[in-house]
From TrEMBL:
Pfam families noted in UniProt: DUF3048, DUF3048_C
Annotated InterPro entries: DUF3048_C, DUF3048_N, YerB-like_sf
The DUF3048 domain, residue ranges: 93-225, 254-364
Coiled-coil spans in chain: none
Protein name: Lipoprotein YerB
Species of provenance: Candidatus Portnoybacteria bacterium CG11_big_fil_rev_8_21_14_0_20_44_10
Keywords associated with the record: Membrane, Transmembrane, Transmembrane helix
Length: 376
């Protein structure tokens, strides 16, 4: 246990050390003519580093949420050499996550590299219409990822909460205003730093933008972004349940508007939820295999329309959650500190314990309360 806790503390220290280096560089520029202010900033940053290891993640009571999340030092950390997100062993387990924006339009199907993601978020970017995906990679190294699409502001706090580098093809002005202000490390195809992206000729623009994990990692490295993972990770079951569901219910139906409607059909032999979209299997273009999740989370979140064409989804704060794993369904809640965009997105069961995921791919479906989700 001590070894696991030390591993988590080391990740946290590495993340803060990089933040301190960045802060010092900015302080030198700002305070070059005032050494007293410069020294004061250095002392203050050093103080933050000393106290951060014992910090407790708190959620404001004004948000009507749980008062506290467990102290990060007291929590068990991940086993060695496994992804902090999927819980699967891999060579690049300690690599910083890269979150990529993927299209969901019928013309772009099948998508490339989806099966290799550790985690995928899906939500509507236009009310009662288009959905978009954000796939997160730690272990996977797909030779092709795409089709890429533009950033949306509601995905940004989710990417920040897992310490990801955000890869996208342009974006809404809500998203670009934040990204261009330096809110997080990102790779924008409109600038295409170090040839991170390319277009293909077999799909019409704007749906023909692609990349690869190799290209994205190369670009991030040359941009000077930190490469080591600072995300503390999710909890995972040590083994999958021996008993599979005996309820006879095997299909999750999510009421996105067609052709974006989604189903997950549970396969007891694989202990996986096979993904269907628009009534047909979701196939990964590279592998030719159907995408399958080990965990499906319904994250209920309110939304509002912006400027008649954008969807503002409340992904910070908290609400109810429904968790599917091992052929069973459970209820719970999700929490993310509104005052800290870098805070982890937590999932809890009804007793307040953090959800332990089955090792493997996680899909988080972010659904408005008025939408229908059935388990048949």
């Amino acid at each position: 246990m001590r070894k696991k806790i030390n591993r988590k503390i080391k990740r946290s220290q590495n993340l803060w050390k990089n933040k301190i280096r960045s802060g010092i560089a900015q302080a030198r520029i700002f305070c070059k003519e005032n050494p007293i202010i410069f020294i004061g900033l250095i002392l203050f940053i050093g103080f933050l580093f000393l106290v951060q290891e014992k910090r407790t993640i708190s959620i404001s009571s004004s948000d009507n949420l749980a008062a506290q999340v467990l102290n990060t030092e007291a929590r068990g950390a991940l086993s060695a050499n496994v992804s902090p997100i999927s819980g699967l062993a891999c060579q690049d387990y300690d690599r910083r996550p890269i979150a990529v924006m993927l299209a969901n339009d019928p013309v772009t199907r099948p998508l490339s590299g989806l099966k290799d993601a550790d985690l995928v978020f899906e939500m509507q970017v236009v009310q009662d219409s288009i959905t978009r995906l954000m796939a997160v990679y730690v272990c996977g190294n797909p030779a092709e990822i795409g089709s890429f699409r533009s950033a949306r502001h509601s995905f940004i706090p989710l990417a920040m909460g897992i310490d990801a580098i955000y890869a996208h093809w342009g974006g809404s002005h809500f998203a670009l205003d934040k990204l261009n202000a330096g809110i997080m490390d990102n790779i924008d195809a409109l600038r295409n730093p170090f040839s991170a992206f390319y277009r293909t000729s077999n799909i019409a623009a704007p749906h023909n933008g692609f990349s690869s994990m190799e290209r994205l990692v190369n670009s991030a490295t040359k941009l000077g972004y930190r490469s080591e993972n600072g995300f503390e990770g999710y909890e995972h079951l040590s083994v999958a349940a021996d008993q599979r569901s005996s309820t006879g219910k095997q299909t999750i139906k999510i009421g996105y508007a067609p052709p974006y409607n989604v189903e997950y059909r549970y396969d007891p032999e694989k202990n996986s939820y096979l993904r269907w979209r628009g009534g047909v299997p979701e196939i990964d273009k590279i592998s030719g295999q159907q995408v399958e999740a080990k965990n499906v989370v319904i994250m209920w979140a309110a939304s509002e329309e912006l400027e008649g064409q954008y969807n503002n989804v409340e992904v910070e704060g908290g609400d109810e959650a429904t968790i599917y794993r091992n052929g069973e369904v459970g209820s719970g809640t999700w929490r993310k500190n509104k005052k800290d965009r870098e805070s982890k997105l937590y999932f809890f069961d009804d007793e307040g314990g953090e959800i332990e995921f089955v090792p493997g791919q996680i899909w988080v479906e972010i659904i408005e309360p008025e939408k229908t989700v059935t388990w048949d």
